[in-house]
Amino acid sequence: MRIIEANNYQEMSNLAAEYIIKKIHHTPQMNLGLATGSTPLGTYSEMIEDYEKNRTSYAHVRTINLDEYVGLETNHPNSYKYFMKENLFDHINIAEGHTHIPNGTASNIEKECQAYEDLIKNQGGIDLQILGIGNNGHIGFNEPGTSFESKTHKVKLAESTRIANARFFNSIQEVPTHAITMGISTILKSKEILLLVSREEKNEAVKQLLNGPKNENFPASVLNTHQNVTIIGDKKALAGIT
Ligand code: GLP
């Protein structure tokens, strides 16, 4: 595992965007796994700026998002589909048909999960997966206790995750109770993983990831078994880590 320390959030975002853009230049038809949450927002905004300045092309890139809430229409401002359009897709030259996010309003969620797993496989797998981390160690929406063998599946969100994500909604009652997420084994099949960590509140989670045992009660600990993981974090998130 490689760790790159940035002085602050902005520098972390610059480094992460540079990292991703370099990969796109190298492999213009790459399959790029994307994450939501507040951590990658600065990275996406740097990618947009680079697109405007340098015209890095996304014409042949395919994106595959980690997760989506169950029950939110795609035009709901808190759906991850909306988040991705608003914060990245609408500002770069990517065709909508090249962007993939689980459909949280599918009539048959189990079938949708299987279809999403098949789609990732049929696209040739994920070349680079961007990840954030939840305070409880979740990756995607794989909450503590999720099997390391899991594939794309429906999850019941931990109450701590609903509380953490309530800041984006008007009230906790509005936060969906379930989501679709790539499973741990799905994420682990990515050829490369880039984990972004920012802010003091993530420091404990990063320490546990690096020093704690590999354990399903802390989903991110599985990343220690992957051959190609890079963490880019700011000083606050990486404090005390050598
Ligand atoms: C959500 C997402 C995760 C994300 C996590 C951390 O629950 N499903 O993919 O990593 O939140 O979010 P933030 O970056 O806002 O701390």
Describe the structure.
The longest helix has 18 residues, at 9-26. Helices cover 33% and strands 17% of the residues. The mean pLDDT is 97. It has helices at residues 9-26, 41-54, 80-87, 109-122, 159-165, 184-188, 203-211, 235-238, and strands at residues 2-6, 31-34, 62-65, 67-69, 99-100, 128-131, 153-156, 178-181, 192-197, 229-234. Helix 7 links the parallel strand 9 (192-197) and strand 10. It is built from eight helices and ten strands. The strands form two sheets. A seven-stranded parallel sheet has the order 1-10-9-6-2-3-5. The protein is α/β, with parallel strands linked by helices and 242 residues long. It binds 2-amino-2-deoxy-6-O-phosphono-alpha-D-glucopyranose.
- Sheet with the most strands: spatial strand order: 1-10-9-6-2-3-5
Label the structural class.
alpha/beta
Mean pLDDT: 97
DSSP helical segment count? 8
Number of strands: 10
- Residue runs with pLDDT of under 50 for 5 or more positions: none
Order of helices and strands: EHEHEEHEHEEHEHEHEH
Envelope shape:
globular
The end-to-end distance, rounded to whole angstroms, is 13 Å
Distinct compounds present = 2-amino-2-deoxy-6-O-phosphono-alpha-D-glucopyranose
Tell me the major beta sheet: 7 strands, parallel
Task: Name the helicity range.
Answer: 25-40%
Radius of gyration, rounded?
17 Å
How large a portion of the residues is in β-strands, by DSSP E?
15-25%
